[in-house]
C-alpha cells in the first residue's frame, strides 16, 4: 500500500495570488511521482482541521485578504506553532510569511499581529518592491522567483534569512539584502512565481522532511515512468529558471 502524505493548503480562498497555488500542485505531483499517496486538505476560515498534517503551504495575499483571515489564523496559532516546533515543514509566501512573523503594520496604519513562528516584523511603505528576483542560498543554490509587496520585513537577531539578494531595493526590505526567513523547517519568503515549479530543490526538501517525520525515512519507490516524468519536470524547471534569471 502506498504511504499517505497529508498536504495542507492554508487559506487558498484568500491567500493565493501570483499563482501561489502552483506550489501545492508541485508538491502533490512530486509526492505522487516519488511513489507516495498525497492527500490534499484545503483549509479556509472556519473549516475543520484535518486529523493529520505533514506539510503546510500558504500563499500571498492583498492586505485585505490578510485582514480577512487573521482571526482564524489566531484561532489556529497554537496548532501551527506546535506543528512548527515539532518539525513540520511549512512554506509561507509573502502575505502569510508576514503573518507568521511578529506583526505587519500596513501602509494605511492598520496593525495585524502575527503568530510569531518566525522572528521577523513588517512595516508597509508606499513604494512597492516589485520584480523578478534571484537570491542565493547555501542550502538550495540560486532561488528564482518574483516579488511584489509593500511590506518591508526585518529579521530579528537569530532568525536566518532564506537567502541573499544582490541589489538594493529588493528582498525583505530593500536595505539589508536578506530575503525570506527560515526557522527549523519553516520557510517564509516573498518569492512568488510560483516558487516551487522553478525551484524543485525546495519542493524536494519540504517533501523529504515531511516523509521522514511521518515514516522515519525517505525511500522513494518509483516506476521507470515516474522517474522519466520527474526528469521531464526537472528539465522544464531548468528552462523556466533560465528564462526567469535572464
Ligand atoms: N499585502 C502584503 C504586502 O503588500 C503582501 C502582498 C503579497 O502577498 N504579495 O506587503
From TrEMBL:
Single annotated GO MF: carbon-nitrogen ligase activity on lipid II
The keyword Secreted is annotated on this UniProt entry: no
GO terms of biological process kind: cell wall organization; cobalamin biosynthetic process; peptidoglycan biosynthetic process; regulation of cell shape
Keyword set, alphabetical order: Cell shape, Cell wall biogenesis/degradation, Glutamine amidotransferase, Hydrolase, Ligase, Peptidoglycan synthesis, Transferase
CobB/CobQ-like glutamine amidotransferase domain location: 7-199
Listed EC numbers: 6.3.5.13, 3.5.1.2
SUPFAM superfamilies: Class I glutamine amidotransferase-like
Record has Hydrolase as a keyword: yes
Residue positions of the active site: 94, 192
Pathway named in the protein's UniProt entry: Cell wall biogenesis; peptidoglycan biosynthesis
Superkingdom classification of source: Bacteria
Chain segments annotated as coiled-coil in the UniProt record: none
CDD domains named among the record's database cross-references: GATase1_CobQ
Reaction(s) catalysed (UniProt annotation): beta-D-GlcNAc-(1->4)-Mur2Ac(oyl-L-Ala-gamma-D-Glu-L-Lys-D-Ala-D-Ala)-di-trans,octa-cis-undecaprenyl diphosphate + L-glutamine + ATP + H2O = beta-D-GlcNAc-(1->4)-Mur2Ac(oyl-L-Ala-D-isoglutaminyl-L-Lys-D-Ala-D-Ala)-di-trans,octa-cis-undecaprenyl diphosphate + L-glutamate + ADP + phosphate + H(+); L-glutamine + H2O = L-glutamate + NH4(+)
Protein residues bound to substrate: 128
PANTHER family: DETHIOBIOTIN SYNTHETASE, LIPID II ISOGLUTAMINYL SYNTHASE (GLUTAMINE-HYDROLYZING) SUBUNIT GATD
Subunit structure as annotated in this protein's UniProt entry: Forms a heterodimer with MurT.
Function summary: The lipid II isoglutaminyl synthase complex catalyzes the formation of alpha-D-isoglutamine in the cell wall lipid II stem peptide. The GatD subunit catalyzes the hydrolysis of glutamine to glutamate and ammonia. The resulting ammonia molecule is channeled to the active site of MurT.
Family (UniProt): Belongs to the CobB/CobQ family. GatD subfamily.
Protein name (record): Lipid II isoglutaminyl synthase (glutamine-hydrolyzing) subunit GatD
Lineage: Bacteria, Bacillati, Actinomycetota, Actinomycetes, Bifidobacteriales
Amino acid at each position: 500500500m502506498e504511504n499517505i502524505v497529508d498536504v495542507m493548503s492554508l487559506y487558498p480562498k484568500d491567500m493565493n495570488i501570483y499563482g501561489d497555488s502552483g506550489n501545492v500542485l508541485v508538491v502533490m505531483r512530486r509526492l505522487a511521482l516519488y511513489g507516495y499517496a498525497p492527500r490534499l486538505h484545503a483549509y479556509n476560515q472556519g473549516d475543520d482541521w484535518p486529523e493529520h498534517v505533514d506539510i503546510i503551504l500558504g500563499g500571498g495575499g492583498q492586505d485585505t485578504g490578510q485582514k480577512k483571515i487573521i482571526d482564524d489564523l489566531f484561532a489556529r496559532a497554537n496548532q501551527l506553532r506546535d506543528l512548527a516546533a515539532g518539525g513540520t515543514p511549512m512554506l509561507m509566501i509573502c502575505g502569510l510569511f508576514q503573518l507568521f512573523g511578529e506583526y505587519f503594520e500596513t501602509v494605511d496604519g492598520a496593525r495585524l499581529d502575527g503568530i510569531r513562528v518566525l522572528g521577523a516584523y513588517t512595516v508597509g511603505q508606499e513604494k512597492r518592491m516589485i520584480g523578478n528576483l534571484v537570491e542565493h542560498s547555501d542550502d538550495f543554490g540560486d532561488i528564482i522567483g518574483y516579488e511584489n509587496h509593500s511590506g518591508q520585513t526585518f529579521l530579528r537577531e537569530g532568525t536566518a534569512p532564506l537567502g541573499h539578494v544582490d541589489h538594493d531595493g529588493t528582498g525583505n526590505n530593500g536595505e539589508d539584502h536578506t530575503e525570506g526567513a527560515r526557522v527549523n523547517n519553516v520557510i517564509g519568503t516573498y518569492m512568488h512565481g510560483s516558487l516551487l515549479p522553478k525551484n524543485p530543490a525546495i519542493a524536494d526538501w519540504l517533501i523529504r522532511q515531511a516523509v521522514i517525520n511521518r515514516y522515519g525515512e525517505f525511500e522513494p519507490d518509483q516506476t521507470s515512468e515516474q522517474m522519466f516524468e520527474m526528469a521531464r519536470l526537472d528539465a522544464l524547471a531548468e528552462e523556466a529558471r533560465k528564462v526567469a534569471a535572464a
